[in-house]
Design a protein that fits this description.
The complex is a heterodimer of chains A (about 130) and B (about 550). Chain A has about 130 residues and is mostly helical. Chain A is rod-shaped. The N and C termini of chain A lie far apart (about 145 Å). Chain B has one domain. Chain B has a two-stranded antiparallel ribbon. By secondary structure, chain B is mostly helical. Chain B is globular and about 75 Å long. Chain B starts with a helix and ends in a 9-residue tail after the last helix. The chains are: A mainly alpha (about 130), B mainly alpha (about 550).
């Protein structure tokens, strides 16, 4: 009589079907993950769409982000600080200077009176 | 006509595009008829080339040369310079052949704006033909870039749900590679000037000086230049890991767009490797690290593409990834750097064009009827559409490399070449054949065999005469190459032998004195031009 292991192997046709299920057909799973060549395919597919394609899409995201940074820099640093800033400063500095020319003759007469009084006071008291 | 056959073939589609522009957009049937007439005309004008080329196939150099090297834009040295050898001849025939079939296949598929669709398709045809015919790098680059815009529009306007993402991904990704190639070629252009005093983009001229780069600038520079070119071609082929644009572009493109994309555009990458990378950098390609990188990427492409195809649920994505796997074989053949490798690779490119073109048409037939590509939606189609199932089986078997059909001839030659180079490489490539059989037969079983589970499939119509007409030529050529590939190998004999010779013994201009150690790198001195140049003014030192 053949020993039980040999008998079982022959009875189960050398376990070829089970082996194929584990290695190739993807019918055997460990916790939902398919085994064998199909499992490798699943893993590589995840790798392809996640990592490699993720890298490609990541490059796209980074390019758009770089565009966003560039437009922020352009709007706030270049345009606001370097262009509008000096214009603002110039406007502020011109405030006192504007007082000299209102077009109001009475104001000019007043300034002239103050000027003459100042000159008299300065040279008179010397 | 004999003297200008290449220009005629090149511009017939463009003339077709211009004629189409004259037809009002509402006359859709008129547009379709005119487009198809020009499609067939494009193929018809390339037919005489077969007979004429066969007579001259063994002559050295390029045949049917047209134009002059530096005459188009003399200030930069660009010329309208066309010519073909056996390799480009086969690819040109594939382009005109598939172009006619693809145009015929879009009759019912394209309902919106057919005029623009066919016009852009024609422009794409011209671009592809120009790439294969150019003997001037500037012209080559113009046509190479000119292919991108029509393809972008074809995918982006007439494509599937994610067409905009796929189109822009394809365009920018390919463009990135192209500009790297441009950078490298500018280096070679200026280097050629330092060696010969001449500014030219003529490819044959650049062949004579580019191999000197490692000697003048060192190996690092040469390797970087090689990778500039390689990036452009690896993205186009596509090689792992630059392949991810392919599934999106193929799946979202309209059927005819996918046929042309897979059938011809991918071959431009391998053509570029053969026409440029190998002859420009014969030494770099022999460096063990570089060559091994190329081989490993090819092998990864074969196995990886096969395994990922196995788990796809979308038919078109499955075929797309199978393209990655099949072209892995082609690049493996190229970097085997021997006669069978190169001729097997070119033949396999043609075979892939035929079989994968047919595969996309097959998927397109079902998609047009059911508007779904999900494998689970189908089953038992062979009982409903028997003629279609038969043709599909023939082309599936062709794609997986069954003997008697075309795929086997190419694959076997490549495996033989890989074995000649290193048996380990061949050993790793063989599972790719098994995987191809696995995913294709499993797809066929799930879609065509078994019971008709889905009631929506019960009333599907079999192939119409027009659809049959798109398939029969492909089946015929597949059987022809499978049963009698000898003429193809005879056509490839001269260019492949010359190329292998060029890689192993590059003919460079000996204008400058090279150190003793480098003299052995060059076997022959160039032409009379070299002697003249050597006698004239001193060539400036290029920095040693």
């Amino acid at each position: 009589m053949a020993a039980p292991p040999v008998y079982r192997t022959l009875l189960n046709k050398y376990y070829v079907d089970e082996l194929y299920d584990k290695l190739f057909t993807g019918r055997s799973t460990i916790g939902g993950v398919r085994l064998g060549a199909i499992g490798a395919g699943d893993a590589l597919w995840k790798f392809d769409s996640g990592v490699i394609d993720g890298g490609v899409n990541g490059t796209g995201w980074f390019t758009r982000f770089a565009g966003f940074v560039s437009s922020w820099w352009d709007k706030w640093v270049i345009d606001w600080f370097c262009v509008n800033g000096p214009a603002y400063v110039t406007r502020m500095l011109s405030r006192p200077a504007r007082l000299l020319q209102w077009g109001l003759v009475q104001w000019y007469a007043l300034v002239m009176v103050f000027g003459v009084a100042g000159l008299l006071w300065y040279y008179g008291l010397r | 006509m004999y003297n200008h056959i290449l220009s005629i073939i090149l511009f017939t589609p463009l003339v077709g595009a211009l004629v189409l522009l004259l037809i009002p957009g509402e006359r859709k049937d008129a547009i379709r008829w005119v487009a198809n007439i020009f499609g067939f005309l494009g193929f018809a004008v390339s037919l005489p080339l077969i007979g004429w080329f066969w007579e001259v196939k063994d002559l050295p150099g390029f045949k049917f040369v047209e134009g002059t090297p530096n005459a188009w834009i003399p200030t930069i040295g660009a010329g309208y310079y066309l010519g073909i050898d056996g390799i480009s001849f086969l690819l040109i025939m594939l382009t005109t052949f598939l172009g006619a079939i693809a145009i015929l296949s879009s009759w019912t598929a394209i309902q919106e704006r057919p005029k623009e669709y066919y016009a852009w398709f024609m422009v794409l045809q011209t671009g592809m033909l120009g790439v294969f015919m150019s003997l001037d790098f500037f012209l080559f680059f113009v046509f190479w870039e000119a292919m991108l815009v029509p393809m972008y529009l074809l995918i982006g306007i007439w494509g599937g749900p994610r067409r905009l993402y796929a189109a822009i991904k394809f365009f920018l990704y390919t463009l990135l590679g192209s500009v790297m190639m441009l950078l490298s070629v500018l280096f070679l252009y200026f280097f050629h000037h330092t060696q010969t005093g001449v500014y030219t983009f003529s490819i044959q001229e650049l062949y004579h000086t580019a191999p000197l780069v490692p000697h003048v600038y060192g190996t690092t520079t040469a390797v970087l230049l090689f990778f500039g070119f390689f990036l452009a071609f690896a993205i186009k082929v596509p090689m792992f890991p630059f392949h991810t644009w392919l599934p999106d572009a193929h799946v979202e493109a309209p059927t005819a767009g996918s046929v042309i994309l897979a059938g011809v555009l991918l071959k431009m990458g391998t053509y570029g490797l053969i026409r440029f990378s190998l002859p420009f950098f014969p030494e770099v390609v022999h460096y063990p690290k570089v060559r091994l990188t190329m081989i490993v990427l090819s092998l990864i492409g074969i196995i990886y593409g096969g395994l990922v195809s196995l788990v796809q649920t979308d038919m078109k994505k499955l075929v797309a990834y199978s393209s990655v796997s099949h072209l892995g074989f082609c690049t493996l053949g190229i970097f085997a750097l021997n006669g069978p490798g190169l001729s097997g690779s070119v033949l396999q490119q043609i075979n892939h064009g035929i079989s994968t073109g047919a595969l996309f048409l097959i998927v397109g037939i079902l998609y047009e009827r059911r508007h779904t590509r999900d494998i689970a939606e189908y089953g038992g189609i062979s009982t409903i559409m028997p003629v279609y199932a038969t043709i599909a089986l023939i082309m599936f078997l062709s794609s997986m490399g069954l003997p008697l059909l075309n795929g086997f001839v190419g694959e076997f030659t490549i495996l033989q070449a890989a074995y000649m180079a290193n048996w380990v490489w061949a050993a790793w490539a063989v599972p790719g054949v098994v995987l191809a059989a696995a995913y294709l037969l499993w797809l066929y079983q799930r879609v065509f065999f078994g019971k008709v589970e889905n009631p929506k499939n019960e009333k599907l119509l079999d192939l119409s005469p027009r659809e049959l007409a798109t398939f029969l030529p492909l089946v015929a050529v597949a059987l022809w190459i499978g049963l009698y590939p000898k003429p193809f190998f005879q056509i490839l004999d001269q260019p492949v032998t010359a190329l292998v010779e060029q890689i192993n013994h590059p003919q460079v201009y000996n204008v400058r004195q090279l150190p003793e150690a480098d003299v052995k790198a060059q076997a022959t001195i160039g032409t009379q031009q070299t002697a003249k140049l050597a006698q004239t003014a001193a060539v400036p030192e290029a920095g040693r």
